[in-house]
Amino acid sequence: MSDTRAPLRVAMVGYAFMGRAHSQGWRTAPRFFDLPVDPEMAVLVGRTQSSAEEAARTLGWAEVSTDWREVIERDDIDLVDICTPGHTHAEIAVAALRAGKHVLVEKPMANTLAEAEEMTRAAQEAASNGVLSMVGFTYRRVPAVQLARQLVAEGRIGEVRQVRAQYLQDWLADADAPLSWRLDKEKAGSGALGDIGAHIVDLTHFITGQRVTGVAGMLDTFVTERPVAESFSGLHGTGGSERGPVTVDDAALFLGRLSGGAPATFEATRYAWGRKNAMRIEVSGSTGSLAFDFEEMNVLSLFDGTDDPRTAGFRRILVTEPDHPYIEHWWPAGHGLGYEHGFTHQVVDLCEAVAAGEQPRPSFEDGLAVQRVLDAVERSSADRSVMTETGG
Amino acid sequence: MSDTRAPLRVAMVGYAFMGRAHSQGWRTAPRFFDLPVDPEMAVLVGRTQSSAEEAARTLGWAEVSTDWREVIERDDIDLVDICTPGHTHAEIAVAALRAGKHVLVEKPMANTLAEAEEMTRAAQEAASNGVLSMVGFTYRRVPAVQLARQLVAEGRIGEVRQVRAQYLQDWLADADAPLSWRLDKEKAGSGALGDIGAHIVDLTHFITGQRVTGVAGMLDTFVTERPVAESFSGLHGTGGSERGPVTVDDAALFLGRLSGGAPATFEATRYAWGRKNAMRIEVSGSTGSLAFDFEEMNVLSLFDGTDDPRTAGFRRILVTEPDHPYIEHWWPAGHGLGYEHGFTHQVVDLCEAVAAGEQPRPSFEDGLAVQRVLDAVERSSADRSVMTETGG
Amino acid sequence: MSDTRAPLRVAMVGYAFMGRAHSQGWRTAPRFFDLPVDPEMAVLVGRTQSSAEEAARTLGWAEVSTDWREVIERDDIDLVDICTPGHTHAEIAVAALRAGKHVLVEKPMANTLAEAEEMTRAAQEAASNGVLSMVGFTYRRVPAVQLARQLVAEGRIGEVRQVRAQYLQDWLADADAPLSWRLDKEKAGSGALGDIGAHIVDLTHFITGQRVTGVAGMLDTFVTERPVAESFSGLHGTGGSERGPVTVDDAALFLGRLSGGAPATFEATRYAWGRKNAMRIEVSGSTGSLAFDFEEMNVLSLFDGTDDPRTAGFRRILVTEPDHPYIEHWWPAGHGLGYEHGFTHQVVDLCEAVAAGEQPRPSFEDGLAVQRVLDAVERSSADRSVMTETGG
Amino acid sequence: MSDTRAPLRVAMVGYAFMGRAHSQGWRTAPRFFDLPVDPEMAVLVGRTQSSAEEAARTLGWAEVSTDWREVIERDDIDLVDICTPGHTHAEIAVAALRAGKHVLVEKPMANTLAEAEEMTRAAQEAASNGVLSMVGFTYRRVPAVQLARQLVAEGRIGEVRQVRAQYLQDWLADADAPLSWRLDKEKAGSGALGDIGAHIVDLTHFITGQRVTGVAGMLDTFVTERPVAESFSGLHGTGGSERGPVTVDDAALFLGRLSGGAPATFEATRYAWGRKNAMRIEVSGSTGSLAFDFEEMNVLSLFDGTDDPRTAGFRRILVTEPDHPYIEHWWPAGHGLGYEHGFTHQVVDLCEAVAAGEQPRPSFEDGLAVQRVLDAVERSSADRSVMTETGG
């Protein structure tokens, strides 16, 4: 039986942490899911030929290039997957869209609101030509998060009354952890706010189906100078004796108001000792509530306020049943998924959108909505009048 | 062997939820602890003679009165324990202090900042005559909370960098739960803010040893009208067909800045379905962190950032060891304490302060510090300019 | 209004750990519950006058005696509460029953099967004269355990298929922890088996409503010699340089078969580092399951196999709702109870049985059923043929 | 740079649940790890050509065959990976070893002790010719399990005193779940005992470094007749109206004695409602203890008995740090792994053993040791004299 599916020839720009994760997604999706298109890992784009070649061999890309501009013009490329640091997203994405390529861009969509707006305009124009675009908020693809969204949409917890969202990490809690591009405002745009705060804002938008309309926020930098990194492995590096400035926020705390009127608390920090990747959200509704913590990513907690109080309690749902999102393609109940599965699901959803010619979510507009919240937090934080003194 | 200890003759005003809890403290403390004074449950004060008599018999008070003014003038009363709703605290406390009686007042100390300031002045004057005063933030007396305070003071988690505090309940999540005095601004002063928000502010002050100096806050009322209660048992009542207005906040969310510079998030709500009495605090320091949740009141979680990363993890400390605060007087390890034990510990600490002639903590000044935070939250919430619009 | 209730005049024999817990029960029950009789803490019986007097003053008993034989003959005593070590239970209980006194005896009911049988015969004879008897398996009175029993009886988990029960402690895990009477076969009868294994056998009987009919067991002693104690506080003591033999089991592991056919695993140990008082039971039924761990004594976990698999999960029920057993007399939801509350509930249930003239549970027959299981475990453990070699 | 590594050409027999998992391991290992050999997914062997072809395309195998005998004779095959039901393992494995192919065989190694012994003899003979063999107990490759083994070997918990091991599932708890080959003694050998009980025996052997030398056991079948399956997806199928007999055990409970003298409890069941894949082991040693539950596979709990009791508690170690086994090749801290990662690690370890010419573990001898325990449990269960009656 020959494969009659259309190919989807992908070029990926960047191959660090996110590039490795995206590659695993492209490689794995066709092995577990029936995709309506046939993705090909065609070109890996990097800055230096030899490193790109080594990465391509390891990650499974057919060829390499050091010139993304040339690649996006190639006729044999259908989709550009952008995994570079945030300050390069806008330029690559806009050019790719104008060249008629579908675009998947890692989050945060951009480093500034202006860039995000420009990207969104480009995406809207491209869409009229059938060219699609998507932002890589992969945590939406965790089965427990999908289930949370479904339950809210089905009215299982009633009207949304409150949201509490946190993204707690501790990889900077050690004051001697070295600098990286993630601590450089030029490259990263912001610190905890854009890197992980963006995730909990998007998660709130996704699960509630509402948008954050107003904020009051505080940004803090606890350690203002750190060793310059000599080597890196993932987020962890080794520093030397030279020191340099941290130019981004270490923690971002903000209150928010949702479009439906619900108040919310948000906290993003890289200084919460002991919390490794605790992306958490709890939504309290008028008839029940939901809670999720990425450190137990296969679990969703549900409290159903309509249960008999005698036997009501938070249900620890292991989201590994055949009826749960994405799960029938994987393993039997209780055989949990890991971090990278979200990237596989992202590929699945993107392929299905491309095949159907429909706008995938999160769209650039969804990404822009997140960017607007981040921008408002920065403005709020800069405005001293936001805080009321206790006078104590 | 005759008892050579001085008596401490107590009059308690009010005998509802808090009166029952205080009575259990007065009754139980001498049975498990060697007190330096001999407390006597002398007089119970209520509004109606027959109800007060029945309460006194049940709770173990020797006599009753319906006139607190008369009682505070009696020579055979040493201490007045005030368990009435907040709007009556200031009048009784100030009068009792002026009459030379030690005073224990339930939290919130008062319904308004002005009352709290007046009470604090009265307490300072009384103190110069050896008359002592204390606010009933009993959660300070939970062994795990005491241990948290000790560990911070000993530098076990380094410098305080961040605090996240929540007090989540759900007894109003059902929109048909009836009205009570706790939902009436005249009597309660505020809603979740003063009732439970006060606790997490005091807990933050106590555990960190710092004060909240600034806030940005939001107060929300989700259900503005409720059935008038026909009967009550504890916090739970039955409503009829008549309805009345809710005049207090249902949820209070605020950001805070501590005197040492650390940012903090606070949330107090009675609408978090499934959270019954989740008073939680997590303090992230420069070398470790601590977490507590009253729903597991015998547990303190500690992450020590100086542990070898290979075997580092949040330690679930069962705070029931003989070396833990208060525990040697109770049961063997793992035989946990309950809610009311805090009231027994409060009596113990108060008796020791009286015997030593030393200011017990939390003092009225400590209570005033909490009140100032609550007041600033109310002002912040009323100020529309605090929120920055996202423009999305 | 005068009290028209009959008095229930109690004499308690012994005043160590269990005596303190029982006293708290007698003192507290009338303060929170409407008892149909009026318990009086009349006489405390000890071996030495001065120590007994000091204990009586602290614990609240009206008078003391050093002669239990005399006390059980007194006309003004209605009930004898036996809190001494196990080897004395049979003699005191049988004599008291023959003297027409109701008897509450701490567990384990007796140190030998023969004693338990004699006690049960005495109880049956006494019962025909309206004299009642009860064994102090107080863990039955934990609200979450009562709820478990109710749910099984209501058929909520269907037919019982399997039981897994553990009682894990660690107070002997340190090989230098000193000897106590609990490690002396003469006084304690057995070690972990009778002290804590008895509890999980009774709990299994209570929750399932079935009896253990057969066992295969192993008893182990890990540390055969320990320092002789110089002082004690609770279970914890300080040892000197002298050493003495441990003559009881440190751990008891056994398989069991219930009368309804279900297989079960049991483990009782005092060597499980980090488990302080982890009395756990999980019952898997044909349509659901229940799990309990005393280290979270206010929680019962329920999995309802008839829930939609999409939202099914273990429910963490905080057993602090007004509808839960005993709770309406205590505090609002989420304000948990502690270890000693079981002793208060025991007094409540005993007083109600006495007033009604009905056999309280657990009866001596229930205690004998436990004793038979312990005895069979000892016989099985002594029988080398029970273990099948793997020949590996 | 050309690849100078030797190829490792693999033929896999079978492609159901285990075949899919093994394929993911072969595919993924080279992408994240530097392997010393270059694995090639050469041939997939199945019973029917068309199904095998479809599977090969999906799973990524270069060609297919319907004749395993032919394949094991091919010169261009280096290793045979056996993923068929247990009753076929011995024949294929012995033939492959004799043909000079390395062999990886899924657990349980065999359905009978005789087969396992034959396989072990064949493995020993083959080993003298440099032909290697390994049993697929992949749970050994979970990072938290590896860490547990390391900590025991390093003496971190002292001498092993007790083991408690459980493997709890619920996919048969519903009495209407259909039959499968796993419930057929001819094909599966046994039920819960061999399928999941084998895992906890191997895990005990691996983590403690000791062997189970004696057992006392009970096997139970709760539901003796079930619908014949009409279709299957993973472990879950749909049954029709026809019914057939269950010929294996539903639950296996046994006590064990380790070679070092420690007693242990084991339970394997597919009827524990709410437990989806709760493979749990807790090892109590003389100075600490370890606990693991596969439902939280990225977590190892450690209690260090030498910690100050004031701050001692079970440490919830997120086994996702760069220093943890296998982790540096994956993601940053807190970005957990899933079920299938064990299969990738298995490939890594096997490739390293092949390159080094060293016996990989678990060897067939390790597999035989497990088989001996299972066999002894079956004999013990069949021996009525093992159980001692309580006579109650």
From TrEMBL, chains A, B, C, D:
Domain of life: Bacteria
Record flagged with keyword Transport: no
Gfo/Idh/MocA-like oxidoreductase N-terminal domain segment(s): 8-126
Keyword terms: NAD, Oxidoreductase
UniProt domain GFO/IDH/MocA-like oxidoreductase: residue ranges: 145-290
SUPFAM superfamilies xref list: Glyceraldehyde-3-phosphate dehydrogenase-like, C-terminal domain (SSF55347), NAD(P)-binding Rossmann-fold domains (SSF51735)
InterPro entries hit by this protein: Gfo/Idh/MocA-like_OxRdtase_N (IPR000683), Gfo/Idh/MocA_oxidrdct_glycsds (IPR050463), GFO_IDH_MocA-like_dom (IPR055170), NAD(P)-bd_dom_sf (IPR036291)
Name the UniProt record assigns to this protein: Gfo/Idh/MocA family oxidoreductase
